[in-house]
């Protein structure tokens, strides 16, 4: 199809469910975007306002954890369904969108402490239910278009990609000589993105002015701060908005493309032979791995090469209104190790041999955070029901170990199991006024072997029972939902 051609949204369609209709629309958008990287899409607004799109968007909002959290209007998803009725609510939302009466309300600010005990807080913006539904509808339409342009080195907030893929890529290239690392963090990324630069990147793919006005309206909606009063948003996209991660990826794709330009077909790092020739003549090779606003640049070269790349990256980020955090950005050698996405990655000698490998361990911070959660649940003055507490502990432990089970962690898991066991038994001894012999009598058999701790039929989950396996590197073969449908 020619560039800038409108979608054939008025064509007759076969009767199907809302999810099938939206999925088919997304597949077409992605196919057209991938076939022509210079194409700008028009008439997207009618797809955003389509009843099927709004219904699927509402279902996604209702399925999120924040569905019970109200925005500035005080309404939750439950209020909408009970008081307004879903069909009439979606009809009215479609009407105000089409007539141009829709105006996003300011997001309600909520601050939460940042992890690590630094004392700093993260500002979240909670939109109203209607704003969330419209943002979700925009994401349904825009995501398949921009996914065609995103590079495979980006892993955060993208469909069918996860943090483990980023760690596996670092592991792979670290094992192949890329051992100097720029461990970078963008300072206040979501709060600082320049709106003009971001909208320019959106316009490169979207021609429909109604969609562009809608995206800009969300960027300019403002924040109702916790202390009272309204704060205008001249930069940034609020954390907590459904559309914000996609917009951040659109902005930061400029960084990915700049760093990975030599890897494009015909570039000086595009093949293994060219990279070897490049290195043979004393020039460095590099590769970026990014997860949202956290990224590392792996360099097969020297420390000076990394320092030069750092300055180059700072120049790329500046037009986007972004800058590297001086406190969190560092140049390290992989033999010293660095933390990324909760893992500690280090190139070290295998014990008992002279061979060196890249190992992935669990970083100290998530271990400390897990222990803090267990301590809070097993406070010795707590009078909570032991069965309820065990349920909550098991939920935390299962989620934690499923995330970290691909690291070298058997010893760590054993130590953590012992820590949890001691915390629970110490709490129960105070709660039930037991002595040590009472604990032994209840949780050992006649041969002196220990049973699992249990209460009300609920057993404490042993993390060490989880199989520790190497995560399979998927590289450039990671599909997305729309290429799978085309296959």
From TrEMBL:
Domain of life: Bacteria
Top-level class of the enzyme under EC nomenclature: transferase
Positions of the Reverse transcriptase domain: 93-345
Stretch list, region Disordered: 1-25
SUPFAM superfamilies: DNA/RNA polymerases (SSF56672)
CDD domains (UniProt xref): RT_G2_intron
Keyword terms, alphabetized: Nucleotidyltransferase, RNA-directed DNA polymerase, Transferase
GO terms, molecular function: RNA-directed DNA polymerase activity
InterPro entries hit by this protein: DNA/RNA_pol_sf, Group_II_RT_mat, GrpII_Intron_Splice-Mob/Def, Mat_intron_G2, RT_dom
EC number annotated for this UniProt entry: 2.7.7.49
Annotated NCBIfam families: group_II_RT_mat
Protein's name according to its UniProt entry: RNA-directed DNA polymerase
Species: Streptomyces davaonensis (strain DSM 101723 / JCM 4913 / KCC S-0913 / 768)
